Amino acid sequence: MFSVGSVVYPRNEIVESNLASGSPFDPASITRPQPALMTYYTITAAMTLIGFPVVILPLYFKYHTLRYRFDDKGIAMTWGILFRREIYLTYRRIQDIHVTRNILERWLGLASVAVQTASGSSGAEMTIEGVADPEALRDFLYRKMRGAHDEGVHVAPGTAGDAGAAAPSGDGDALVLLREIRDEVRRLRIASAPSGNRR
Q: N or C: which end of the chain has fewer CB within 10 A?
C-alpha cells in the first residue's frame, strides 16, 4: 500500500514481491492498469468543469475494460464496451519506446509507455497507461524488440560486393534483391565502359 495525501492506493502485489525479492521483471503481471489510473482519469475529467459527466463516462468504461497481454510475439491491448477496440503489435514492428509522466501522473506514481512503429503516423501506435514500473517495462520491450530483429537476421549468400552481409528476413528479402540489382548494374556499367575508363 502507498499513500498520496490522504488517499491510499493498493499497489500491484506482484510488482511489490518482485521488488522485494529482486526477481526479474515479469510483463505477464501487467494485465490491467494500476488502480490509481482511475483517480487520474477522475481528476483529468474534473478539470473540464462543466464537461465532467461527458468526459468521465468514456474514461470510466475505458479503465474498467482496459486489458494488456504480453506474449512471445508481441503486445495486445483491448478496451471498450459498445465499440470494442483491440491493438496487437509484434515486437518486430516496434521502432521506439517513450516513457512519459506529467506532474499528476508523477504524483500518483504512474507513467505511460508509448510504443511507436514505422507506420508513418506522428503519434504512438499504442500507449500502455497506468504503469507503476515503466523503466522495467521499457527495458523489457527494448530487449524483445532487439531480439525480434536479431532473430530475423540471416546471411545473404551470393551477393557480390557484400558477401556475408547480414540482412533481416521478410523485409530483408527485398534488401537482398536490391543489392543484387545494384551489383548487376555495377557489373554491366564496368563491362560496357571503354577499357581506358574502367575502375
A: C
Measure the CA–CA gap between 7 and 5, rounded to whole angstroms: 6
- Whether 75 contacts 99, CB under 8 Å: no
* Phi, psi of 194, deg, nearest 5: -60, 150
**For residues 151 and 41, is the Cβ–Cβ distance under 8 A?**
no
**32 Cβ contact partners less than 8 Å away, ≥ 6 residues apart:** 66, 67, 68, 130
Distance, in Å, from the CA atom of 69 to the CA atom of 75, rounded to the nearest integer, reads 6
d(CA 6, CA 21): 29
Global pTM exceeds 0.70: no
Give the Cα separation of 92 and 125 in Å (integer).
14
C-alpha dihedral (113, 119, 123, 124), degrees to nearest 10: -10
Q: In what order do the strands lie in the sheet with 94-100?
A: 94-100, 111-117, 126-131
Half-sphere exposure of 151 (CA within 13 A, CB side): 10
Give the residues across from 3 on adjacent strands. 8
Residue 169: Cβ within 10 Å count: 13
Helix (H, G, I), strand (E, B) or coil at 155: strand
Angle value at C-alpha 28, between 23 and 33, nearest 5 degrees: 105
